[in-house]
């Protein structure tokens, strides 16, 4: 008996530890990522203090190191070789800062730290060297760091934006050839190849820009840095080259814009553009239904039961209502039993961990009116609890068990809430974003 | 009066009639089931968790393994979800190939069900007939996709391979053959007195129950609700075909049996028309970026799979992996009604009732 208790205790402790570790990790990650996102701030820092800027670059490198230790390890060796001469200048500083950062960010794995160190040194060494003379170069280094961080995306994004790589060919043939090769290799093989070649590629691009345009480059680099937050580093590299060759730059820019527009249209999808063109002129055919639902609900249950309502153009224009936590059950009941709504069928219920909150998505259907509605409710992430819909739709039974099992959402009033998939001795809820796998035996 | 005592009887997880790893804990009083508690999760592989770290194209093979009897429809639902959110127009030829593949797969799925369901009652030969025909379909799909069960055939924006030469003709030839065999099935089983006695009036539920328990597919239509997403919320090119939504009124195991066999006929109609209308040439892939990134937001689509309504929910943060992916799996929802159906039933009806629900455990467990 006591043995069992001990085991139970052990499990609990271990679970708590794993959770704490995960939280710490996440925090560290968020902090590290906070760096790159504050592009404007770092831009000022460039003007003010070169060393600070270098430190920012390092922070980024550290963040990058944290995320993809493997990539860094491989990419690091690439950049080390290329920027070895620059290392002398800021070796001590870089080492100190990088270590401090690595220590703060990476708590557990000594391996990651050791590998992350050199990687960030290589980057920051480069950055320092450039920063001495131009603020622009710092920004560039950042871009390079960003490029590195998204080494994967770059390599893969390349073949996707074939228009881009075509222009690169025109601009710098040899380099472009190398890039194309790297891309081909990436597509054919795997990360290892990509990383090794990815380093030199991004360095080459930034080096060029530095040599040629100082003031322009500064402005462009800033704009680019902003763009980098959103777009692929690959595109950055391409437009760098565009600045270099003025004659070709115009054509390149145009082609780029066209390619970007294309990519946007393809990626952002007709859903967006379709919504933009069709919604203002002629609202979705489901708009009338949404209006009707909102009207009936607010008339009967009050104004403040709905937090939001909209037509979800990504989801076949389904009328979507976001209900307040306290009115969830009341509205669900109303949706089912109201004469003119009559949502008698629960098609789907599941939860999602959005990190800021927990959300439940319910898709209802009315066979009487042949209409769908999506109902969503936001829950407190730390203690997610909500009324069960099982008394209204028996079909919600297992779906709620699944949400409880995988996300830890408690459904009050559920007749048999249990771990339907994983078993009662499972520790943690796997679909939560902070989930850490846990095994007693290991 | 015989005095009986309640006892617990464990069925499964390894039990031939569960067609997978499904466990039932029965409380029985004599031969009467007092309470049935299904235990699932033996085949849970965490597809949704895995999907969070995979690109969209990489997730497609995982969907093959959910409902592995009807993998084409699973392939389709994820592609359809991504295409809907990205606004991709799929080329006509690809759509025809998809529909042909899905309907052939539906026929194969119903055939497998038919054979094993009759096998559960102790009749062996129907299974062999069903597999004979199913094998032809599997061969056709193999020629198309290179795989017999887990096809991984569809891609976002189209299909992986065009049909090989002469494939459409083979499909067209299969239809009259299958129709002929279907008559034989009816002669062999449908009128059989033993079979009728074992299925008529067994596992009966009402329209209201069916809706309340979120049933879908033949399990829903057997109660008289005329609802088929292919007809009522047409996706792909299903609005171009002339076919009926099969319904029955009784809501018992026999109605579900009739529904499925009649659905084979309807699927054959669709296959016939699709093979006729099949475009002479054209693309089989839309222009899709190599790295598929679904725009930020969320989307939920549902389609009619062999077992009912399969849905795919994607929450995207604009990256190349989904932030959250969720599959609405018809078998998972359909199975929920089982404890209610089994309560008070004779234990010898257990297999007839469970079999009529038509579950695939890979899909139940996700």
Automatic annotation (TrEMBL), chain A:
Record-annotated NADH:ubiquinone oxidoreductase 30kDa subunit domain positions: 321-436
Family annotation (Pfam families): Complex1_30kDa
Superkingdom, natural source: Bacteria
Gene3D superfamilies: NADH:ubiquinone oxidoreductase, 30kDa subunit
GO molecular function, one term: NADH dehydrogenase (ubiquinone) activity
Annotated spans, Disordered: 22-207
InterPro entries attached to this UniProt entry: NADH_quin_OxRdtase_su_C/D-like (IPR037232), NADH_UbQ_OxRdtase_30kDa_su (IPR001268)
Amino acid composition bias (Low complexity), ranges on this chain: 31-43, 54-64, 95-105, 136-146, 177-187
PANTHER family noted in UniProt: NADH DEHYDROGENASE [UBIQUINONE] IRON-SULFUR PROTEIN 3, MITOCHONDRIAL (PTHR10884:SF14), NADH DEHYDROGENASE UBIQUINONE IRON-SULFUR PROTEIN 3 (PTHR10884)
Protein family per UniProt: Belongs to the complex I 30 kDa subunit family.
Protein name: NADH-quinone oxidoreductase subunit C
UniProt lineage: Bacteria, Bacillati, Bacillota, Bacilli, Bacillales
From TrEMBL, chain B:
Localization annotation: Cell membrane
A cellular component annotation (GO) from this entry: plasma membrane
Record-level Gene Ontology MF annotations: NAD binding; NADH dehydrogenase (quinone) (non-electrogenic) activity; quinone binding
Membrane association type: Peripheral membrane protein
Natural source organism: Mesobacillus foraminis
UniProt cross-references to InterPro entries, sorted A to Z: NADH_Q_OxRdtase_suD, NDH1_su_D/H, NiFe-Hase_large
Gene assigned in the entry: nuoD
NCBIfam families per UniProt: PRK06075.1 (NF004739), PRK12322.1 (NF008974)
Protein name (Swiss-Prot/TrEMBL): NADH-quinone oxidoreductase subunit D
Principal location: membrane
The family this protein is said to belong to: Belongs to the complex I 49 kDa subunit family.
């Amino acid at each position: 008996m006591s043995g069992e208790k001990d085991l139970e205790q052990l499990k609990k402790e271990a679970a708590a530890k794993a959770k704490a570790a995960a939280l710490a990790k996440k925090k560290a990650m968020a902090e590290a990522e906070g760096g790159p996102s504050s592009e404007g701030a770092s831009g000022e820092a460039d003007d003010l203090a070169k060393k600070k800027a270098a430190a920012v670059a390092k922070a980024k490198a550290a963040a990058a190191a944290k995320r993809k230790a493997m990539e860094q390890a491989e990419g690091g060796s690439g950049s080390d070789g290329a920027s070895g001469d620059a290392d002398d200048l800021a070796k001590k500083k870089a080492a100190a800062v990088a270590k401090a950062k690595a220590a703060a960010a990476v708590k557990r794995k000594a391996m990651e730290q050791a590998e992350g160190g050199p990687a960030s040194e290589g980057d920051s060494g480069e950055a320092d060297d450039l920063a001495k003379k131009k603020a622009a170069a710092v920004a560039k280094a950042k871009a390079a760091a960003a490029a590195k961080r998204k080494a994967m995306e770059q390599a893969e994004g390349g073949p996707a934006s074939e228009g881009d790589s075509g222009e690169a060919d025109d601009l710098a043939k040899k380099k472009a050839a190398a890039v194309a090769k790297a891309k081909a290799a990436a597509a054919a093989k795997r990360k290892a190849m990509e990383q090794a070649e990815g380093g030199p590629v991004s360095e080459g691009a930034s080096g060029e820009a530095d040599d040629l345009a100082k003031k322009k480059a500064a402005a462009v680099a800033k704009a680019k840095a902003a763009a980098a937050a959103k777009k692929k580093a690959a595109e950055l590299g391409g437009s760098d080259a565009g600045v270099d060759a003025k004659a070709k730059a115009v054509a390149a820019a145009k082609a780029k814009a066209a390619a970007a527009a294309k990519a946007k249209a393809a990626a952002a999808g007709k859903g967006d553009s379709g919504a933009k063109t069709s919604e203002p002129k002629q609202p979705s055919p489901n708009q009338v239904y949404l209006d009707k639902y909102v009207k009936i609900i607010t008339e009967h249950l009050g104004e403040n039961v709905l937090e939001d309502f909209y037509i979800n153009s990504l989801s076949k224009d389904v009328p979507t209502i976001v209900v307040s936590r306290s009115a969830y059950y009341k509205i669900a009941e109303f949706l089912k039993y109201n004469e003119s709504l009559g949502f008698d069928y629960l098609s789907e219920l599941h939860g999602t961990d959005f990190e800021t909150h927990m959300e439940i998505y319910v898709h209802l259907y009315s066979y009487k009116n042949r209409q769908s509605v999506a109902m969503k409710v936001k829950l407190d992430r730390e203690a997610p609890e909500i009324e069960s819909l099982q008394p209204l739709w028996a079909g919600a039974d297992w779906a709620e068990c699944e949400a409880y099992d995988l996300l830890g959402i408690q459904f009050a009033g559920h007749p048999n809430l249990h771990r339907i998939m994983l078993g009662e001795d499972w520790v943690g809820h796997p679909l939560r974003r902070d989930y850490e796998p846990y095994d007693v035996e290991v | 009066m015989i005095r009986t005592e309640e006892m617990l009887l464990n069925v499964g997880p390894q039990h031939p009639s569960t067609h997978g790893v499904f466990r039932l804990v029965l409380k029985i009083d004599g031969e009467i089931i007092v309470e049935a508690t299904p235990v699932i999760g033996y085949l849970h592989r965490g597809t949704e968790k895995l999907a969070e770290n995979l690109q969209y194209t990489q997730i497609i093979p995982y969907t093959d393994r959910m409902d592995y009897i009807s993998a084409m429809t699973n392939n389709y639902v994820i592609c359809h979800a991504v295409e809907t959110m990205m606004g991709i127009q799929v080329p006509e030829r690809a759509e025809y190939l998809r529909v042909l593949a899905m309907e052939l797969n539906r026929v194969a799925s119903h055939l497998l069900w038919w054979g094993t369901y009759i096998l559960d009652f102790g009749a062996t030969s129907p299974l062999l007939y069903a597999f004979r025909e199913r094998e032809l379909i599997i061969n056709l799909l193999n020629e198309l996709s290179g795989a017999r069960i887990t096809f991984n055939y569809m891609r976002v924006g189209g299909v992986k391979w065009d049909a090989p030469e002469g494939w459409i003709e083979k499909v067209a030839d299969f239809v009259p053959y299958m129709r002929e065999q279907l008559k034989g099935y009816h002669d062999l089983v449908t009128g059989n007195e033993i079979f009728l006695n074992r299925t008529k009036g067994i596992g009966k539920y009402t329209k209201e129950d069916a809706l309340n328990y979120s049933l879908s597919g033949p399990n829903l239509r057997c109660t008289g609700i005329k609802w088929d997403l292919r007809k009522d919320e047409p996706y792909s090119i299903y609005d171009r075909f002339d076919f009926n939504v099969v319904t029955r009124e009784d809501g018992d195991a026999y109605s579900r049996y009739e529904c499925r066999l009649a659905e084979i006929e309807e699927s054959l109609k669709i296959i016939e028309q699709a093979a006729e209308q099949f475009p002479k040439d054209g693309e089989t892939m839309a222009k899709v970026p190599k790295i598929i990134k679904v725009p930020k937001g969320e989307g939920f689509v549902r389609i009619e799979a062999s077992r009912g309504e399969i849905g795919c929910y994607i929450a995207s943060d604009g990256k190349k992996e989904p932030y959250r992916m969720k599959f609405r799996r018809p078998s998972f929802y359909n199975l929920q009604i089982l404890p209610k159906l089994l309560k008070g039933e004779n234990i010898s009806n257990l297999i007839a009732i469970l079999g009529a629900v038509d579950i695939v455990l890979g899909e139940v467990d996700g």
